[in-house]
Every structure is written in structure tokens, then in C-alpha cells.
Amino acid sequence: MSDPTNVPARLLPRLVCASLGVAVGLGVIGFLPTVNIAGAAALTSMAAGIGISLLVSCIGALPVSFSAGGDPMRMPTVVMGATALRFVPALGLTAAAALSGLFNRNVLVMWVALSYLALLAVDTVYAVRLVGPKRRAQP
């Protein structure tokens, strides 16, 4: 992990930290509006929605990370596959949580959608850094 040329090993922990930061930021920003609109009980639905998106964001980053040192011609395909890999568990987990009856469905689905889009931006920056032009090794 100390190899400065090993970009995926350096960027994956940064991605996880950035994703956690965005997720916490979304929770902080959405706390009052969620309580005002749907009541304090809806905060568990908000947390579950953000948690689902955070989990699938990390899942979607794995294929991009593991194939980053490989053939550059395959990387666009890997990135698109990771996007699909990210979407399928998000849909399944959201459906399972919504149908469980434990959460307010409207709040859950709204927060999954909002946090999914916000975390997709983080994942896109990560993928661009891995796929983009070679960066100089930093001391």
C-alpha cells in the first residue's frame, strides 16, 4: 500500500472516506427537512436510504479498483459494468427495505434516490482518476 504507483490502493480508501463524508453530510442537511415533513420516525428511513446507497457505492467501486492496472481499452467497459453492478443491489435492497414494513416507503425511496445520485458523483470522480491519463508519481 506504500507503493506510490499503486493508484487504486491509494484512491480506494479515499473513495470510502469521501463517500462516508458525503453520506454524513446528506444526513446532516436532510435532518430538519425530513423531521419537518415526515416526523422524527422518518429519520430511520432516511438513515436506511443513505446506508443502502453508501453500501452499493462501495460495491460498485470494487470492480473499477481491481481492474485499474489492467488493459486501458477494457476500462470503459469495466466502469459501465460497475455502474450496473451498483444499480442492481440498490434496487433489490430498496425493494426489500420498502416491502419490509419497517420504514416509511416514501422517505426511504426519496433518500435512496438522492443519496444514490450524490454518491454516484463521488464514484464518477474516482473512476475518472483511475481511467484518466497517467498521473506523475508523487513523492
Main attributes of the structure:
single chain; 139 residues; mainly alpha; 4 helices; 78% helix; 0% strand; elongated
Structure, described:
This protein has 139 residues and is an all-alpha fold. The protein has one domain. It contains four helices and no strands. Helix 1 runs antiparallel to helix 4. The longest helix is centred in the first third of the chain and has 32 residues. The radius of gyration is 17 Å and the shape is elongated. It starts with 6 loop residues before the first helix and ends in an 8-residue tail after the last helix. The relative contact order is 0.19.
Number of E-type strands: 0
User: Helical proportion?
Assistant: over 70%
Number of helices: 4
Radius of gyration: 17 Å
Between the first and last Cα atoms, what is the distance in angstroms? 14 Å
**Secondary-structure element order, N to C:** HHHH
Shape: elongated
Structural class: mainly alpha
- What is the averaged pLDDT score? 85
What's the number of structural domains?
1
Strand count, sense and barrel status of the largest sheet are: none
